[in-house]
């Protein structure tokens, strides 16, 4: 008897193995995305904190709001830098940047 191709049982087995692998991998990938967004938000807050220090050095006082850093002839930040990749907005309180 000549065999040309896979039997139904072989196909079901292969698809089952692929599905099990996907079920093991997908949760890890989605949790990594969440961690990356959190870390990128932390990095963005640090960028804003460094711009706060630069603003204080050049002007002699701390900015009272994020608008102080994004406005003016030569802004310290762009409008895109005010929002984290995770969607949180960065605000300034007591000379420190926080994501909320």
From TrEMBL:
It is found in: Cell membrane. It comes from the Bacteria. One of its GO terms (cellular component) is plasma membrane. The keyword Transmembrane helix applies. The keyword GTP-binding does not apply. This is ComG operon protein 3. Keywords: Cell membrane, Membrane, Methylation, Transmembrane, Transmembrane helix. Belongs to the ComGC family. The chain crosses the membrane at residues 6-29. It is a single-pass membrane protein. The lineage of its organism: Bacteria, Bacillati, Bacillota, Erysipelotrichia, Erysipelotrichales. GO terms for biological process: establishment of competence for transformation; protein secretion by the type II secretion system. Its main location: membrane.
């Amino acid at each position: 008897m000549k065999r040309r191709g896979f039997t139904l049982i072989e196909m079901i087995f292969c698809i089952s193995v692929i599905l099990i692998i996907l079920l093991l991998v997908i949760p890890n990938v989605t949790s990594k995305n969440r961690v990356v967004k959190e870390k990128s938000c932390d990095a963005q807050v640090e960028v804003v904190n460094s711009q706060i220090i630069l603003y204080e050095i050049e002007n002699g006082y701390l900015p009272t709001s994020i608008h102080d850093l994004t406005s003016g002839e030569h802004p310290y930040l762009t409008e895109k830098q005010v929002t984290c990749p995770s969607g949180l907005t960065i605000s300034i309180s007591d000379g420190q940047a926080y994501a909320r």
